[in-house]
Amino acid sequence: MAKIMGIKGFILDLDNTLYDENQYLYNVFLDFWTKYFFTQENFEDICTQTLSDETRLHSKDIFRTFLELTPLGYAQNYHDELFSIYASIQCKLSLYEDAQEFLDFLKQQDYQIAILTNGPIQAQKNKINNLKITGIPIFYAREDGIEYEKPHPKAFLKVLNHFRLSPKDCCMIGDNPYTDIEGADKARILPILLKRGYAKNVQNHIQCDTISNFKVLKDLIK
């Protein structure tokens, strides 16, 4: 991982890179559940099944998957309600410990840092607020349209323009081989795959360095 030594700017994914997105989804499901059911009977089992790596990997609509496992079943109004909660819920979230330490280290060393995230803008902003992330520029890839989300190079180029750095001076760290790694590679940014979350089971076709946590990276650039 010698190339990392010359890096001046770090672009970081959000969900399952800096924190466990299942924390957030669990709170969304719990908020919905308590509105319709008097007890939490079966809730934990349904959540465990819905949020398992296997289900997350193959589900094209996690809200629909959850609803189909509940006694209510799927209905569009329930789905809309879940999405509304997803975009606005106030809950306690925390960064992965190694991610927090890495961000603190980068700030102390005056590296340029940005977070680049896909997904509905209101929901992603709400996650940032719940995580209490401050002092780091956040780029919401969907601002230019869903078609320009990662892996589209335009999402990455916006961050490069903000940094005023060339692609060779930056790296992208993310958990998703398709959106994060393939996208960074298209933009000629050094990709680093963080193997955690359900996407750790997604096959990566781009040759790049792989890490299991941020401590490995921090130790390399000290």
From TrEMBL:
Keyword Metal-binding attached: yes
Cofactor(s), by name: Mg(2+)
Family matches, as InterPro entries: HAD-like_hydrolase (IPR051400), HAD-like_sf (IPR036412), HAD-SF_hydro_IA (IPR006439), HAD-SF_hydro_IIIA (IPR006549), HAD_2 (IPR041492), HAD_sf (IPR023214)
Pfam families recorded: HAD_2
GO MF: metal ion binding; phosphatase activity
Superkingdom of origin: Bacteria
GO biological process, one term: small molecule metabolic process
Keywords: Hydrolase, Magnesium, Metal-binding
Name this protein carries in UniProt: HAD family hydrolase
Organism: Helicobacter anseris
